[in-house]
Amino acid sequence: MTEKRIPELLVEPNKFCPGCGHGIINRVLAEVLEEMELADRAVGSLAVGCACLMMDTFGTDWIQAPHGRAAAVAVGVKRVRPECCVFTYQGDGDSMSIGFSETMYAAIRNENITAILVNNGIFGMTGGQMAPTSLPGQRTTTSPKGRDPELTGRPLNMINQMKQLSIGYLARGSVASAKDINKLKKYIRSAIETQMNGGYSMVEVLSPCPTNWKMNMESSLAHIENTVKSIFPVGEFVKNGERIDA
Amino acid sequence: MPRRLMKGNDALSEAAVRAGCRFFGGYPITPQSEILEYLSWRLPEAGGTFIQAESELSGINMVYGAAAAGFRAMTSSSGPGYSLLQEGISYIASAELPAVFIDVQRYGSGLGDIFQAQSDYWQATRGGGHGDYRTLVYAPASVQEGVDLIQVAFDKADQYRNPCQILSDASIAQMMEPVTLPEMHEHDPNADWAVRGKRGGDFKRVTSTMYYIEDFDAYIKNKYDVMAEQEQRWESVLVEDADLVLVAYGISSRICKEAVEIARAQGIRLGLLRPITLWPFPVKGFAEVNPDVKAYLSVELTSLPKMEDDVKLACEMKAPVEKFLGGANIPESTAIVERAVSILKEQR
Description:
In chain A, 36% of the residues lie in helices and 18% in strands. Chain A is α/β, with parallel strands linked by helices. In chain A, strands 2-1-3-4-8-7-9-10 form an eight-stranded mixed sheet, with helices on both faces. Chain A is globular and about 50 Å long. The N and C termini of chain A lie far apart (36 Å). Chain B contains eleven helices and 16 strands. The N and C termini of chain B lie far apart (51 Å). Chain B is globular, with a radius of gyration of 21 Å. Chain B has helices spanning 8-18, 33-45, 56-68, 79-94, 121-125, 143-160, 170-174, 216-230, 250-265, 307-314, 333-347, and strands at 4-7, 23-26, 49-52, 73-77, 100-107, 113-116, 136-138, 164-169, 176-179, 205-206, 234-237, 244-247, 270-275, 277-279, 295-300, 321-325. The interface between A and B is large, with 34 and 40 residues.
């Protein structure tokens, strides 16, 4: 029987809604930082959205950026303190809507930072509005009849935006199953390793928002497995600076 | 130190490096682009970092990151780009971090034009961004004074843990003048509040300090009250016996200084009060003015009056406050004298 060990970085229980995927992603990130002995020189940059709840519960140094600007703030830290492990932790609204430019340009310059972008297809903190990643037909508080791609465009695939760039590492994982969580941990580890060896890394994580999806936990995970993954395929897309056409 | 002939923007950039600035993130816009061009080679040479950001929004947030990490950092912009900086300035002030911003003022709202103006006075002195904050605003009237004030700005930013601004303009930025540069200063980035990983200590959180300070309303009011009391700077020229005192900063103060000379040669008792800090406005300087002064004339290169309000508040309306505006048209010193004479006739 294996011992249950909670990473020391998780200094308090998380504050996310029941069934939210952020808690699992926090746990995985904390485990990776501790296993790589980087917890003591890790600096996180987050901005606005559910991710901010981490500032009280996840015990790394933090900077809270203006909405969307976390990547630019992270770049400022990493350039002056290259010995630090600098990461952003952002939702899809923050990183892909208002912060699309900052997120993309950190990648375009191949900055030595790691971006963790959590894709739950919705604005969680503000109460369930449509996100760039909302699926066609998805009902949100600003698309009450379902997202209409004719009016609002197709879901934004950030991996496709980035995979043609000269960057170090790019992957999309999920928290929909134990198997996926184990893979996610490998992706995050590879991303952090890439940063410390030089190069931009990004891991997008498909994550449930049962509260705003108005689903229970079980059906949320089934929704990721059966529907979300068909639009946002998981896997590694760039590794060691080389594109992998999976 | 030997004197060198330098362009305003270049001198300001070199002085920033010598003040220990080791990070710049910014975006090109006329008439401040020479600052980027200069720092693009000079900062790496001095062991610092220069990034041409994808926008002013990104540049100021890179500065936010570098400042949070304990390094002396700055950005610069002008006109439309200065508006884009305001979000970041509010955040940096709210997080109580030191940083320096340069606004090389240009003319007009919207796109406006690239020539000199003093139209960003309210944006600089009233906050510009959202919420409750102030920044120390220094207004150089010469290339040398810009060199001197940027050192002060970095030191005061550290002292108060608050952003400071240099309010320049296209004239001061583009003119060449002889300057004496200061020695190189190295800044220690390892302040106890600097984020660099917890390294065995407690983890640090850089965000609005209001979350962690009790009775924040009183705390923040006191912080800015102390700055307003202690940081006023001004130059006064012949104000003790003046019948009319011109009030002007930056490039327009140089025209006014010439107007004072012309007037005095004609026996007209003109004086000049030149604010060096725009926030805090040098209210104390008005105590030096002749108590029987007949009027003030606020001279600004702006289509709509801005500093005039501060002059009215500072002199408590004990004498009439008139305005002389410019911007697209730069006033002649003789025109200012004529206007002063006409005001004095009305006051007789």
